[in-house]
Amino acid sequence: MYSFEYLKSFVINLFLKNNFSEQDAEIISDVLLAAELRGISTHGLMRISEYINLLEKGRIKAQPEIKIIHETSSTALVDGDSGLGMIVGKFAMNLALKKSDSVGTGWVAVRNSNHFGIAGYYSMMALKSDKIGIAMTNANPLVAPTFSKEALLGTNPIAVAIPAGLEYPFVADFATSPVSRGRLDVMNMNNEKAPFGYVQDENGNPSDDSGILSKGGAILPLGGDREHGSHKGYCLSSIVDIFSAVLSGANFGPFVVPSLDYISQKKDNYKGKGIGHFFGSMRIDAFQSAEDFKRNMDLWIQSFKQAKPVDGQKEVIIPGEPERESEIKKMKEGIEISESVLRKLNLIAEKFDLKKI
Fold first, then answer.
1. CA dist 357 → 21, 36, 147 (Å)
2. Closest-CA residue to 53 (of 112, 119, 111, 114)
3. Per-residue pLDDT reduced to its tens digit, 71-107
4. Do the Cβ atoms of 298 and 167 come closer than 8 Å?
5. Strands 105-113 and 275-283
6. Which fold has domain 1-63+334-357?
């Protein structure tokens, strides 16, 4: 087990060694460790080797010039200048929050960015000021639309954070596929099979091979197959792709420049600008008094918590509850790192003349 502060110091020092500013290195560490604390390690420290690889290939800039390309009182288009998504994402979400301060809501589309970690980090930024936060992003084309053999969409997560009064906030942070790419990577590293309904092979046949992505296979949309509602997962993923990339001018769908060597990019004649994100902030008192809303939100949460659970379950879970409990536990007891991730981190530490973890 490793303490939050110890790992935070390691991540900051690593990115300082790679020419990031101290402020930006701290943002990166905050987002990565938020994922670890909340039990989403697939978007935590295991991603560092991927980021370093993209830095060395010149795909990520350590000191991007993030710019507002176009804006109105409530909207903006931001160009991330190939910056790491955490830095670009925090800039954009802060802009959405600022706009909502003035006119009630703020909406920011982003192009020319990279992987930004967990979407929930950005939506939760709104909670401190009685706002509803929304964040989404497109990603590597690894998901096959319903009835498609080809992977044309990303796992494209959506996160929504809603404040309450006496109760804890409602925080939904989920991929629009039944499994994330990172979770499949972990399964594959541990020689585990993937449950049927997660992936298909290169011919569109159901598969339980957790390493199928490197063999031309694809992740299925949320729902798994048409009979179980995969067309709805396909719709959700498409909405994220359009809001994040078509609206911003980023690379969309199959044209996303992959961060993984085993994905072949569909270049054709389309040239966009990096990965796209979309952020929203809504001030509650732009609709009704914050006190009234939070009182009703408490009632909403309490109503669901009082529902009779099925046999074998203690209670009905409110979105965000398991992640919050994980965060409390890991801040107290420490963060566990798998042996495979630890080996990769220590190789990187050695490369940049840092103390091993």
1. 22, 15, 45
2. 114
3. 999 999 999 999 999 999 999 999 999 999 999 999 9
4. yes
5. antiparallel
6. Hypothetical Oxidoreductase Yiak; Chain: A, domain 1 (1.10.1530)
For residue 265, what pLDDT is reported? Answer: 57
Most confident listed range (29-33, 180-184, 339-343): 29-33
* Cα–chain center distance at 83: 16
The pLDDT of residue 269 is above 70: no
- Same CATH topology for 1-63+334-357 and 65-178+220-319: the answer is no
Domain ranges for the chain: 1-63+334-357, 65-178+220-319
| Cα–Cα nearest to 27, from 88, 100, 109, 104 | 88
Domain boundaries 65-178+220-319, CATH class: alpha beta
Burial (CB < 10 A; 0-12, 13-18, 19+), residue 288, is: exposed
Q: What are the two backbone dihedrals, phi and then psi, of residue 134, each rounded to the nearest 5 degrees?
A: -135, 135
Q: pLDDT tens across 149-188, in order? A: 999 999 999 999 999 999 999 999 999 999 988 889 889 9
Contact 196, 242 (CB under 8 A): no
